[in-house]
C-alpha cells in the first residue's frame, strides 16, 4: 500500500465510521443553530489542510448545552456526529464538554461569497461544508477528539445503542474501562459481534480473539502491532495507551467471548 493510500485509510478511520440512524435520540440539526455568538479561532495545524487555519466557529459546549439536562446527566452517553452522507463518529460526552471543541462554519481565508476552501481527500476535492468540528488546543489525541467534517447533526445516544452488539451486557469497572477504550480507539476499524468498522478483522465471532491468540501477547500487540507484524495496517498505540489500558481492552474482549451475538 502506498503511503498516500495508507494515510487516506487512517483518515477515513479517524473521520468516519459506520452509518447509523440517530432516530429516537435527542438530535440537534446543525443547519438550525444560532450563529450570532461567533468567535474567530486559530488552529495551529489543521489535520485536513495540513497548515494553520482560522475559522469562524461556535463553541461545541454551547451547542451541546441545548440537549435536555436529563440526557446530559445520564450515564454512558456518547456524542454522535453525523455527516451529510450518513456516516458518523462518536466521542465521550465528558471529552466533548471539556476540551473546548468548536463547530466551524466558515474559513476566514475563503474568497468573498464563499465559506470554505477545498482540500484533497483521496481522489476527491472536497470542502468541510457545512460544518466541521475543530480543536484549537494543540496536541490532542485525534482518536479521542475527532475532527469530522461535512457535519449535518449531533445526537446524544447511550453507548449500548450506538455500538449495538459490541457493547457488553455484563458491566464491571474493568469491562467498562476496556469497552470505553475499545470504542474510542478500535471500533472504527474492528467489529465485535459484527458491530463496528471493517478495516480490521472481527474480534469475537465465530471465534473470540482470546480463543486463538496467545493471550499474554495480546496487550503487547494492541500497544504496538508493527512490532509484531511488519507491514501491518494497524497503527501503533504506544504513545497513546499504556499497558494497563491495553489490558483493560483485553478484559473487555475476553468478556465478549461469553456474549457472542445470538447467545445473549
Ligand atoms: C486503522 C485501523 C485499525 C485500528 C484503529 C485498530 N486496528 Fe487492530 N487491526 C487492524 C488491521 C487492518 C488488522 C489486521 C491486519 C493487519 O495486521 O494488518 C488488525 C489486527 C488486530 C488484531 C489481530 C487480529 C488478527 O486476527 O490478526 C487485534 C487483536 C487487534 N487488531 C486489536 C485492536 C485493538 C484492541 C485496537 C484498539 C486499541 C485496534 N486493533 C485498532 C486495523 C486497526
Automatic annotation (TrEMBL):
Transmembrane stretches, by residue range?
none
Keywords, alphabetical: Electron transport, Heme, Iron, Metal-binding, Signal, Transport
Which Pfam families does this entry report, sorted A to Z? Cytochrome_CBB3 (PF13442)
The record's section on InterPro entries has: Cyt_c-like_dom, Cyt_c-like_dom_sf, Cytochrome_c550/c551-like
Q: Which residues form the signal peptide?
A: 1-22
Q: Name one GO molecular function term.
A: heme binding
* Cytochrome c domain: residues covered: 173-257
- Quote the protein name from its UniProt record: Cytochrome c domain-containing protein
